[in-house]
Structures are given as structure tokens and as C-alpha cells.
Specification:
The protein has 98 residues and is mainly α. It has helices at residues 3-21, 29-32, 49-73; strands at 27-28, 44-46. The chain has one domain (3-81). The longest helix is centred in the middle third of the chain and has 25 residues, at 49-73.
């Protein structure tokens, strides 16, 4: 895995985790009972985005380390995901054993 692949993997994990973390403990204006005129009752009153971004970064780093470790160790390869047998057999390298 190259550096670009590692960064893209981290970014995908980070954004997927962030979308899961955002609604946790969210207080809406309707929940608090103070709806600002011109806004929806479901608009956030307090969102704590900075704290949620740090939590997301910590969780994403752990998930990335696990997934990158699996990819780099070769435990799961792209051939393991070929359920319809569309990939050709891997090329066998011929050594110069003599």
C-alpha cells in the first residue's frame, strides 16, 4: 500500500465515522424548546463539532491501523473478494534454480 492509498483509506474511514458520530448526543432546537424564527425545529442547538471531530479522528486511527494491518499482512487480498471467479489465476514466477 502506497502513501496515497493509505491517506485515501484514512479519509474514507474518517468521513464514514464522522457521519456516524455527528448525531450522537445532538440537541435540537425542538428538544430544548427554543426554536429561532426562520429555522427548523430539527436544527441543532448545541452540536460540539470540535469534540466530535477529535473523537472521530481517534476512532478512525484505530480502525485504519487494523484495516491497514490486514491489507499489508496479506490476510485478505483482492482475490479473496473475487466471488464470481472473474480474475485470472496469478502468474507463477519462474525462478532461476538451474
Amino acid at each position: 500500500m502506497g502513501i496515497t492509498s493509505a491517506l485515501v483509506l484514512f479519509a474514507v474511514i474518517w468521513f464514514m465515522t464522522f457521519l456516524i458520530v455527528i448525531p450522537i448526543r445532538l440537541q435540537t432546537q425542538g428538544d430544548v424548546g427554543k426554536v429561532v424564527p426562520g429555522t427548523h425545529a430539527g436544527s441543532p442547538e448545541t452540536h460540539n463539532l470540535k469534540k466530535k471531530a477529535w473523537i472521530t479522528t481517534a476512532v478512525s486511527a484505530v480502525l485504519w491501523a487494523i484495516i491497514a494491518g490486514i491489507i499489508l499482512s496479506g490476510t485478505i487480498t483482492i482475490r479473496d473478494l473475487d466471488w464470481f471467479n472473474r480474475m485470472s489465476e496469478p502468474a507463477v514466477s519462474r525462478g532461476t534454480d538451474g
